[in-house]
Amino acid sequence: MKSIMHDKRDGTCYLCMAAGDYTRKTILEEHHAIHGTANRRLSEKWGLKVYLCPAHHRRIHDSKDGRKDDLYIQRAAQDAFRERYPHEDFRQIFGKNILADDTLPSVSDTADKSCLDAQLKAADDDGINTLMNKRLKQLNDCIHQIMTKRFSKIAVFEALDSTRELVKILEEVERRKAG
Ligand SMILES: [Zn+2]
Ligand SMILES: [Zn+2]
To answer: Which of 30-39, 51-60, 81-90, 136-145 has the lowest mean pLDDT?
Structure first.
């Protein structure tokens, strides 16, 4: 089954992209998003796989440092599954519900989006920097999703949100400079 998460022809590494690197790689390895004996076969069946550069692939399987990346991909896999097969039950098929576990890194962290105005007012310059970096990271995550999933309308809207918030933050920075 062809991947529903990542187009191999793009030549990109799924995790390099998450860090903003969209270049084509000379060597790419196939990685099944939900691994383990039974789940690997299921990942194949449902198209839950991505392409990784050898360094990222090795890190995911061989080291503790790869744990976060591993979860990031698993989460994206369940997301893609939900979008592509809305009538299927991921949990029943794979025996776990990755998205329900909120200790995992989120693809786009929306928790503090609502109160940006208040946060901006209260923040010192370092705080503003932190807010800006968070939004940039969100925007990058959205672009990553748009690049890999192509037709993800949600990701496009999220990118729009993040962009609007970045404008707000920049306006606050300008106001402070002027004042
Ligand atoms: Zn990579
Ligand atoms: Zn793998």
So the answer is: 136-145
